[in-house]
């Protein structure tokens, strides 16, 4: 059987975002034990074990928030009426009325793929950008496929520029940096006949104005602009359709937030849909 560690490695290699969940403390009675682990994917599916159905539902919901925010989170799942546990940055408390009576703490670590950067051009500037991007932990793409790239740097200095820009834009890349003077860059873009929206995605002259002279300094200015676009402007990779966040609902019996899926207990009463954390809450509601 594939272990959770092996599964995490597989998802990392395939550049799929996920959350690695590890039970760090458990207080009986509970089915989870310290060291139990799971991976939660962006669609809400879970592989592994971090507790029973009720605890798992709370972990799923918190994991999706961690995946969205990119911040690690310590989640404490408590039974109803348990002693308070202080919340704060990086910590969250969930009171789980249908929990078994024990308490668990789960560390949720979002694992997001490194941004992919494609460098076009076998030039001193292209080589410097490749070296610096690797140092900054970017995934420097070496194939001709632009799909999934966060940014593309075109440093051919007159060679293959238009084909590279057109291919990157067609692949949905939102940030294309063209290494050229302001005047030559404008000519290149005019010849491509870009739309206003496409032209806004091409940055030329590439890089921030830092007075760069050497290839290494130019690379620094370019990567500074790319990092700013990611960290400040929210630049995302060209990944096609955005991931669809699973629908959530509130269990009308225990008040828990549950993810709606094919296996989520469900009832339709008087034309209204209700979803439940477990079969017990479903039975309790329909019997009332």
UniProtKB/TrEMBL annotation:
Q: Which superkingdom heads the taxonomic lineage of this protein's source?
A: Bacteria
- Every copy of the XdhC Rossmann domain together lies at 117-226
* Positions of the XdhC- CoxI domain: 14-76
Name of the molecule in the record: XdhC family protein
């Amino acid at each position: 059987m594939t272990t959770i560690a092996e599964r995490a490695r597989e998802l990392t290699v395939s550049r799929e975002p996920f959350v690695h969940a590890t039970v760090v403390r458990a207080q009986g009675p509970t089915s989870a034990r310290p060291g139990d682990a799971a991976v939660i994917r962006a669609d809400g599916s879970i592989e592994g074990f971090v507790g029973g159905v009720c605890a798992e539902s709370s972990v799923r919901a918190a994991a999706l928030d961690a995946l969205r925010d990119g911040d690690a989170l310590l989640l404490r799942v408590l039974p109803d009426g348990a002693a308070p546990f202080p919340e704060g940055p990086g910590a969250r408390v969930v009171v789980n009325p249908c929990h078994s009576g024990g308490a668990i703490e789960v560390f949720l670590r979002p694992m997001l793929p490194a941004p992919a950067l494609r460098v076009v051009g076998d030039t001193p500037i292209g080589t410097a950008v490749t070296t610096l991007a690797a140092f900054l932990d970017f995934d420097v793409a070496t194939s001709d496929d632009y799909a999934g790239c966060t940014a593309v740097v075109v440093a051919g200095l007159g060679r293959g520029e238009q084909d590279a820009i057109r291919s990157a834009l067609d692949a949905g890349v939102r940030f294309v940096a063209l290494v050229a003077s302001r005047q030559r860059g404008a000519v290149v873009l005019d010849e491509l006949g870009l739309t206003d929206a496409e032209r806004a995605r091409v940055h030329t002259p590439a890089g921030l104005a830092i007075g760069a002279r050497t290839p290494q300094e130019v690379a620094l200015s370019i990567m500074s602009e790319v990092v700013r676009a990611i960290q400040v402007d929210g630049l995302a990779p060209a990944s096609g359709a955005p991931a669809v966040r699973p629908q959530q609902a509130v269990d009308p019996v225990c008040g828990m937030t549950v993810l709606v899926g094919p296996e989520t207990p469900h009832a339709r009463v008087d034309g209204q849909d209700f979803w439940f954390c477990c079969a017990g809450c479903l039975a309790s509601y329909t019997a009332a």
